[in-house]
Amino acid sequence: xxxxxxxxxxxxxxxxxxxxxxxxxxxxxxxxxxxxxxxxxxxxxxxxxxxxxxxxxxxxxxxxxxxxxxxxxxxxxxxxxxxxxxxxxxxxxxxxxxxxxxxxxxxxxxxxxxx
Amino acid sequence: xxxxxxxxxxxxxxxxxxxxxxxxxxxxxxxxxxxxxxxxxxxxxxxxxxxxxxxxxxxxxxxxxxxxxxxxxxxxxxxxxxxxxxxxxxxxxxxxxxxxxxxxxxxxxxxxxxxxxxxxxxxxxxxxxxxxxxxxxxxxxxxxxxxxxxxxxxxxxxxxxxxxxxxxxxxxxxxxxxxxxxxxxxxxxxxxxxxxxxxxxxxxxxxxxxxxxxxxxxxxxxxxxxxxxxxxxxxxxxxxxxxxxxxxxxxxxxxxxxxxxxxxxxxxxxxxxxxxxxxxxxxxxxxxxxxxxxxxxxxxxxxxxxxxxxxxxxxxxxxxxxxxxxxxxxxxxxxxxxxxxxxxxxxxxxxxxxxxxxxxxxxxxxxxxxxxxxxxxxxxxxxxxxxxxxxxxxxxxxxxxxxxxxxxxxxxxxxxxxxxxxxxxxxxxxxxxxxxxxxxxxxxxxxxxxxxxxxxxxxxxxxxxxxxxxxxxxxxxxxxxxxxxxxxxxxxxxxxxxxxxxxxxxxxxxxxxxxxxxxxxxxxxxxxxxxxxxxxxxxxxxxxxxxxxxxxxxxxxxxxxxxxxxxxxxxxxxxxxxxxxxxxxxxxxxxxxxxxxxxxxxxxxxxxxxxxxxxxxxxxxxxxxxxxxxxxxxxxxxxxxxxxxxxxxxxxxxxxxxxxxxxxxxxxxxxxxxxxxxxxxxxxxxxxxxxxxxxxxxxxxxxxxxxxxxxxxxxxxxxxxxxxxxxxxxxxxxxxxxxxxxxxxxxxxxxxxxxxxxxxxxxxxxxxxxxxxxxxxxxxxxxxxxxxxxxxxxxxxxxxxxxxxxxxxxxxxxxxxxxxxxxxxxxxxxxxxxxxxxxxxxxxxxxxxxxxxxxxxxxxxxxxxxxxxxxxxxxxxxxxxxxxxxxxx
Lengths: 115, 889
Hints:
The complex is a heterodimer of chains A (115) and B (889). With 115 residues, chain A is an alpha+beta fold. Chain A has helices at 5-8, 15-25, 33-43, 52-64, 88-112; strands at 31-32, 68-74, 80-86. Chain A has 5 helices and 3 strands. In chain A, strands 1-3-2 form a 3-stranded antiparallel beta sheet. In chain A, helix 2 (15-25) packs across helix 4 (52-64). Chain B has a 6-stranded mixed barrel with strand order 3-4-9-6-8-7. In chain B, 42% of the residues are buried. At the A-B interface, helix 3, helix 4, strand 2 and strand 3 of A face helix 2, helix 3 and helix 4 of B.
């Protein structure tokens, strides 16, 4: 099952990383899972493509934490699809996580940059 | 979505639905991806393969998502349910706040009913349920000597019989001996000597009971051997009280009755073998057995045994009886008519209290039932008043279950708050009860409100809440609610069915109250009869004090006589003292038993009549104002150095000397058939030596001057002084004669006699209290139903009055309803009381369970109270103003 998937998702892409990416994806509008994966692909120019398995596990995990909620709706092509949207708690979580990540990325960036 | 959940509750998703939803979601993703890849020109198969590969572990994800969703679902359900309960609770609090009168009446009723139940449970649990301080206490029995055919009439064993039982029985892992209380005098390092209660125990007794010592060790084999036997084990109480809980007490020496003893151990808190002993000393069984005749014939050894594993009580009893039968053959003059019996120690310890406590527990349970009926009625009226509110809620989508839950929440809220108040009440009441009646409860029982009691009260509160809440809730939520919305006029009159329910509740209340009142009535009558019992002596103005001539020098009876003569003489010359004497056992505290042989008559050695033996000296008869009916009392002539003279009571004279020739005859008492003869010099009046509820037995008042081997006596002093003042006087007199001796238990004879009625008064007071509460509740119940009825029929009464109905006609209309319900209740209650009174028969004295006077007065009382409860609402009905009533609504 893995094979080419290994190339798509960076191996060290941790649960927490997928979570924050999903939250970010839902920040402006409700989306179904497939749309989220397309959005992440597009936003990161394919670098941060998330494996379907990891994405859906993250979605259901986040829903259980009450950061996102789901609702059945109709997709663009008139099929039954599950749409996710951020809750207030999710939005708050996104904000804190984002600033933590920014600080972290800055620090990593500083360390790795040639002096 | 969240909005949907909150306001239009969606059905909860099942596991199957969750699984299907996850599948739908995942296949949507895959299909979308396949379609996209197809659009890029891949074949169906290739597209599917690539999509699957990109997706990763599909099977695991499916399982993972399902499990997450199931958990989410469960959490949501809990949260929702919690929210609903909170909503119900908040609503209940609001509604109760809006009707404070209802809330207060309910809470008070509940607090009283649950409090009473808790208080009684606290005591009865301590006595009946809490473990005794022995290992596996249910297998510990007391073995006694008895007569065939009279298994409950038991006496202790003789030391020699005990030894034989100990050696030949096979059912008990051990039989231990107890020789009951003797007082010993303890001389503290500083301060006055103090009298302590000692129990002599066989060296194996502690191992039979299986309780380890708290400090040091208990008495073990070898401790009883003379020369090695000056060892003492202290009770926890004694250790705390007299030795300040000194942790280094073990190994120290203390002086008891003039001899030096070594403290070898302290037993744990709550451990007692008798009822109130302070310490235990080893019992020299082998030494006692040296006196062959006395050892076989004097019965004073209590035997405690532990059943071997696997041996049934029935088999053990058969075993004991076999031993007894062999003893009867072997020692016919001592044991020919004797058998053996056994009883669990728990029964012996809680014996007197058990029926009283079970009775009280039953009584409070009835009170609680009445309270429930009352509250159900009250709540029922309220629900009817709230029919429209409930109907509105139902119309807005609340299901029936939700409405029932709402109403039950209200009653549970009430019952839990009421229960909490009740527990507070019970804590105060238990403390009060036990401090008012300190002698009622053996100190081994520790009655206090603890986790167990709290759990009981909580359970009672919950059951109560459901009981009185469910009925109105089911009624209030019934389908015809919707009609009450349409119905504007008599919308809140309630259905026929609920009217019937309410009347049934009233009938039940009246019946239960009548049962309780009958019980209390019978107890009150018994108590009245008891206090009317002619005591046979005059306790007024008599002070008593316990005394023991302890110490080696008093082994000599001459010294005992000199001591008591001196003390009594000193005291009789003190100002304000009329007469002073002494007696071996104070009135109502029993006496010992002895056998009677009459000179010149055929005395059947196997069946000698029993006499109660009391030893008296000084002006005993004068101090207690017991009349000398024939002959004379003791005086200076009855010296210890002349042949013994004696005095018998009237019952003895009548039974054994029916010709009236008692004075001058000679009798012989005690175990020895060749003992010395005693000449009867007088017949004294009867008095109740064993308690007021026990008939007077044939009694011998021996002359203590001749019986000075008995060193413990109770002084009786007729005096105009107060008890405290008299006590000080007695202490001074004793100190003047022998400063090493101690005085104990200074009290009035009235107190002694009253104390013998304590447990009866305890039960009586509580039962009466409960009965009156029940009557009040029943009256409130009747009143409530009728008042509610009148309020509902205001318009009808208005019309009747307008049409010319007289006041008396209106009154009788209302009263008739109440009277019918009360009469039915009275009849039902009478039946219940007649059945229930049989449970009381053991506690009655001088009245039968069918006492007509009691039943008559109780019926009358209930009827009068019921009538009063009817009249008030009836009068209100006559004051209805026709005009306003018809304009209403």
